Amino acid sequence: MKKTILLAIIAFACLLQDASAKKIALVIGIDKYVPDTPTGETLTWRNLNGAVRDANAMSNVLKCKYQFDVIKVLDTPEETTTKGLKEAFKWLQSNTSANDVVFFYYAGHGSQVENSRHFEADKTQECIVPSDAYKGKQNYILDTEINAFLLSLTNKKALVTAIFDSCHSGSVSRNAITAETPVTRSLNHKFPDIKTSVPKTIPPATRGALIISAAQNNETASETVNTEGLPQGAFTDAFLQAINASPSVENVATLEKRIRSLLRFNGKVQTPTFEGQEGRMNKALFGENVATSDNPLLFVEKVNSSSGEVKLLGGAALKITKGTTLKNDKGIELEISTLDGMTSSYAKVTSGSLSSIKEGDAFEIKVWAHANHPNLVVYASKSSLSDIQITSIGHDLQSLKGANFTFVKPWEVGTHTLAFNESTSQWIVSNTCGQQKVIPNPNPAVVKKAVSGLVCDGNKSVKLFVNLPLSTDKYKLLEGEFEESATKLSKNSIEASYILGGFYEEGKLKYAWTLQSANAQSEETKTLPTFADPVSVNSQSFKYNLTDQAQKIGTIKKWMTLRSPASMAFPYKLCLQDLDNGSVIDGGKIYEGQNMRLAFQKDPALFARWKKRNMFLYVFMIDNDGQMQLLLPFDFSDNKSDNILEGYEKDVVPVDLEGNYIEFTVEGTGVDKMFVLASEEAIPNPEQLFNVNGVRSTRSGVGGDPLVNLLNSINTNTRGLSMKERKVKAVWSISSVTFESSLR
Questions:
Q1: What single-letter DSSP state applies at residue 72?
Q2: What pLDDT sits at residue 139?
Q3: Cβ neighbours of residue 649 under 8 Å, at least 6 residues apart?
Q4: DSSP letter string, 212-240
Q5: Where does the UniProt annotation place the signal sequence (predicted)?
Q6: CA-CA distance, 178 to 191, in Å (whole number)?
Q7: How distant is the alpha carbon of residue 333 from its chain centre?
């Protein structure tokens, strides 16, 4: 019997929407797949135990926690046939209007369908399996059909959230079994090759939808026993625990990490996927606005009372290091003691009680790194002068401008420098030949005389950099911000990678981080930005802009210097294929006008001792402006190495984004560094982690970004088995290649 629940509209609903908008849901749970009358099928059909319970639990949460207006639940064999599901899809489509909040949930079997004409490397399509699938005749619903269904809802300008608790559900489905395995939401069946050309479709997540899947497209989705001793989907159980333990308006990125930590605690190896654009991931489950923190949250995966350690979801990918400290809302503080790969770490309690911590608890980063292990060291000189006095000095010196006397910015090459020596409280004029002169004060006449007396290489033209110090007040502001960050504000300019340079421009006193020339040509840090956008001293966000820029540069530097564990080196590196002559370029010089394709190149020596693990691959680029761009996965495409590298048979494999190659023509000059990160475990929210705005709004030099067309070129009943806890370093590897483009 169909169950449609009508609820009163709650006047104080969290979501801002027009008066006619509603919350509407379609919830499906299928347990019964074995027909009452035996058929001639040779398939090993299995019923499920917990999918209907999942659906009803989800319906209850929608009603009680989220106040949905209309909830249609399908949970009987008669309702969940192929025809019944497709009719329900049409019901949801016809009852959805603009601005509605729409939720779709599926729990049941899933499988993969062979399609030798599919553009994807694995030549399979995922599907969900209706209750009458035993009848054969393609009684399943393909991922392309589900994709079209979800797009029809986003096309109506509805806010869509969809959850699939099924095997292979990273591409929408649940997995296959053998007769020996326990009950699973999957089928021991290989559907026949459908031999159908599949058009490239638009991922619903790129149209504002949030798509949540219980497992990757090559994983099983396991079942568990819930706290009441009843069978339930492991993902749905963790999902319900997570949303009941969190505020109703917790953002999705945080919810994902909370769910993953609970799954790990229960010994489940599946990796749920959350597909949503950055703006959607920063909102709550159904699109509500939430307050966000600049610091990420780490979630407790396991509490080990014997060792006194807490295992956390969050590792090197978040740029945390040994010594990073965390705190929770109970006042308990932790310190990271060991990093375990890209996604996990261990911590010790430094304040509070270990017994008060439980699995799924959230900890916010308090201090990013121990003082002895900063991501970046910077220096800024200070004086006892006020902002007004320092601005006045810069303004008065502008009177020296003339045909042979100009001023340069901190990152530009000059002939002379005027700077304040903090230790002696003196002003000093110096030149590029190493000569210098102490002056009593920085008034124009005194400065001009000192500059004229310091002639270097017979150069009569003066290009003066006036390095204005910070006022004491501004220095204290920065000092306070850096105390709880991964950036160290050093008292010694020699050990600093970046110097804060002050200068006067267009009537304003400005400051900018500038890379020390001694660090500029290091191979490891060659693509670090030479400077960051200047910040006006009168800006309300002065300290926040400068500390944010330093944090970004520190993160980039961390990636530049990150090294793989000695025991693990992924045997494929990035390279470029010259499309005109077929040559492979594995780093170094490339030239304007060359037509390139990004590819993976096998390292035979590393490949010979590699164990062929199926890894998650992430390809990203860092340019001279300090901008990070994620290239793979693109628009939530598959990023497992078995598929991307086509079975590891070829020496050179193009980076394939589900049928699209990354191709571009080299333009202009510059240096860009590309990375391939291989991880045994999926990194949560890679679109947010690797897509980071740079610290410079414009690129200097000729021709702009040498890879400016890079992204634009892309045509546009187990549900699993438990695993014993083991403290073993998670497998991951990172490598990079630098390309320096120049004019021919």
A1: E
A2: 79
A3: none
A4: EESS-TTS---EEE-TTS-EEEHHHHHHH
A5: 1-21
A6: 15
A7: 26
- Structural contact between residues 460 and 348, judged by C-beta atoms closer than 8 angstroms: no
701 neighbors 551 (Cβ within 8 angstroms):
no
The token duo for 554 is 């520190």
Contact, 25 vs 102, CB < 8 A? yes
pLDDT tens per residue, range 680-689:
888 887 887 8
CA-based max dimension of the chain: 105
Full strand arrangement of the beta sheet holding 124-128: 110-114, 124-128, 141-142
Q: What is the pLDDT of residue 563?
A: 80
pLDDT digits (tens, 9 = 90+) for 8-44: 322 333 333 455 689 999 999 999 988 887 665 545 5
Q: Which tokens go with 214?
A: 């219980």
CA 200/CA 654 separation, integer angstroms: 19
Classify 110 as helix, strand or coil: strand
- The rounded distance, in Å, linking the Cα atoms of 654 and 635 is 18
Instruction: Tell me how far the alpha carbon of residue 330 is from its chain's centroid.
Output: 28
Q: Which two tokens stand for residue 581?
A: 């002559």
Cβ count within 10 A of residue 483: 12
At the top level of CATH, the class of 297-367 is mainly beta
- Extract the tokens encoding 324: 């990073």
Select from 560, 520, 519, 517 the least CA-distant residue to 737.
560
Task: Provide the 3-class DSSP secondary structure of residue 126.
Answer: strand
Beta-carbon count within 10 A of 507 CB:
9
pLDDT of 5 reads: 36
Instruction: List residues bridging with 303 in a β-sheet.
Output: 310
pLDDT attached to residue 198: 64
Enumerate residue ranges in the chain where pLDDT < 50.
1-17, 42, 171-185, 188, 699-729
* pLDDT value for 116: 61
Residue 239, sorted as left (phi over 0), alpha (psi -120 to 50) or beta, turns out to be alpha
Q: What is the pLDDT of residue 720?
A: 25
- Cα pseudo-dihedral 114, 117, 118, 122, rounded to 10: 60
CA separation, residue 464 to residues 402, 403, 441, 450 (Å) = 12, 13, 16, 12
Query: DSSP 3-state helix, strand, coil percentages of the chain (rounded to 5)?
Result: 20, 30, 50
Question: CATH 2.40.30.20 occupies which residues in the chain?
Answer: 297-367
- Do 637 and 663 form a contact (C-beta atoms < 8 A)? no
Peptide bond into 130 cis (omega under 30): no
Q: Where in the chain is the domain with CATH 3.40.50.1460?
A: 19-35+44-171+180-282
pLDDT recorded at residue 44: 53
